[in-house]
Design a protein that fits this description.
Elements (H helix, E strand, L loop, with lengths): L1 E3 L1 H7 L17 E9 L2 E4 L2 E7 L5 E7 L5 E6 L8 E7 L2 E2 L12 E7 L5 E4 L1 H11 L3 E2 L2 E2 L3 H14 E2 L4 E2 L6 H4 L4 H16 L6 H8 L11 H10 L5 H11 L38 E6 L5 E5 L16 E4 L21 E7 L5 E5 L5 E4 L21 E6 L5 E5 L10
Parallel strand pairs: 2-10
Antiparallel strand pairs: 1-22, 2-3, 2-6, 3-8, 4-5, 4-7, 7-9, 11-12, 13-14, 15-16, 16-17, 18-19, 19-20, 21-22
Helix pairs in contact: 2-3, 2-5, 2-7, 5-6, 5-8, 6-8
């Protein structure tokens, strides 16, 4: 076991300057235009409310009703704080895709916008699924409440699933890693379809069927599409076949046809094991990652065994470091990742200290490397090696007092001690 105390650390790391605080321009008043859709068509006469979410109870900023074309405009002269996340809730309304239906009080749709909303927004079943699954731990009914970082991360992941400006697919979910390698698109669209079945009253008892299928193992049945979505997201494992059965009941295959007339595709052909929405991410030099660790902003650091393009084997450890943002966006260079500081073949040793410096161990160089939060190496080109006496290293931990402990699996000098 190796311990590096704070005094040694100061010698080993390059000294950086103190970061100053730069105040940005004051936030402007909020203006949002958009449309509420249900089942792929306008939702008329729906009440749309703009909310500000924070650590306390959400605050209503503005409210209006949609026109017959589903469109709305909202304006708030109030300036939201820097830790506030904005979101829209649409309740009730008449789904124009089903002519003749009256106001449906069971409709409740959600769109989480983040701190800087787009000027044009669509609220529909897809934005509801994306917003509920990302905000599940912060959402109760129509109220979103939580700590600033958690809310920022949750809102930042909504665009991975849905484009808020169009109400259609987001970027990450339809990229090759997810559209072809996970069932997430079909899971997602199927969830949106069953919510749409209630919102558009595809059958006279569609909402009652949805609420029964979404009833949790403990507690009351949902009362609208938003609480139904929350129940499914919190108990995704609970009898998933009940919800899947609604696809056939709401959208039977027409005689002589091959596909169901669902508002969203692709839909599932068989019931899932759970209503989960996993996404894969890559890039930033990531290849054969070892241990990963989150920093104070929710970014993920990982040491790579190998480097993109190399024929990586256990005889040739040459990987660098990768950093992903909390929304999965790579923050390190696309092919090499972060290099230098002795990084050469990451292991299961990774830790982040109180200053968000990443501590990583390497098998290839038998060294300890430290990167600052921007990927700049703080260790010498050869890394921390204790004069070449270190061998293979694994686990790393930073204590609250700032000391760093590292598990050394083997040492070059069997008589050395730390």
């Amino acid at each position: 076991m190796l311990k590096i105390d704070k005094t040694q650390m100061a010698v080993m790391l390059l000294v950086g300057g103190l970061l100053g605080y730069v105040s940005g321009p004051a936030a402007a008043a909020v203006r949002i235009e958009g449309r509420v859709d249900a089942g792929g068509g306008p939702l008329a006469k729906s009440t749309v409310t703009l909310w500000a979410a924070s650590g306390s109870e959400p605050k209503q900023l503005a409210q209006t009703k949609t026109g017959n074309d589903g469109r709305f405009r909202l304006h708030s002269a109030e300036t939201p704080g820097k830790d506030v996340v904005l979101y829209l809730v649409a309740k009730g309304g008449e789904a124009t895709v089903n002519k003749g239906v009256s106001d449906n009080p069971a409709i409740a749709l959600l769109a989480a916008l983040g701190s800087k909303p787009p000027a044009q927004v669509v609220i529909n079943e897809m934005t509801t699924v994306a917003s509920v699954w990302t905000h599940s731990q912060f959402l109760e009914g129509t109220a979103i409440k939580g700590h600033a970082l958690g809310l920022r991360i949750a809102a930042g992941n909504v665009p991975n699933f849905v484009d808020l400006q169009t109400g259609r697919w987001g970027t990450a979910i339809q990229e090759p890693l997810n559209s072809g390698q996970t069932p997430t698109m079909a899971n997602f669209a199927t969830l949106a379809d069953v919510l749409a079945g209630c919102a558009t009253s595809v059958t006279s008892n569609a909402c009652n069927k949805l609420f029964a299928a979404a009833t949790p193992p403990a507690g009351a049945a949902p009362s609208d599409t938003l609480t139904a979505a929350q129940s499914i997201a919190r108990y995704p494992w609970y009898q998933p076949d009940r919800l899947f059965a609604l696809i056939d009941q709401f959208y039977p295959v027409p005689t002589g046809k091959n596909l169901r007339a669902t508002p969203f595709m692709p839909y599932l052909n068989t019931a899932p094991s759970a209503w989960v929405l996993p996404l894969k991410f890559d890039g930033g030099g990531y290849r054969a990652g070892g241990k990963a660790m989150f920093d104070s902003e929710g970014n993920l650091w990982v040491g790579d065994n190998f480097t993109v393009g190399w024929q990586g084997t256990d005889k040739l450890w040459q990987g660098h470091a990768t950093k992903f943002a909390a929304n999965g966006k790579p923050l390190s260079p696309i092919t090499t990742g972060f290099v230098g500081g002795g990084m050469e073949g990451g292991t299961f040793g990774a830790a982040v200290d109180a200053k968000d410096n990443a501590w990583l161990t390497s098998y290839g160089s038998k060294a300890i490397t430290v990167f600052d939060k921007n990927g700049k190496p703080l260790t010498p080109p050869e890394g921390i090696t204790f004069n070449g006496r270190l061998g293979l290293m694994q686990g790393v931990i930073v204590t609250p007092s700032g000391d760093v402990w590292i598990i050394v699996a083997s040492v070059i000098d069997s008589e050395c001690s730390f």
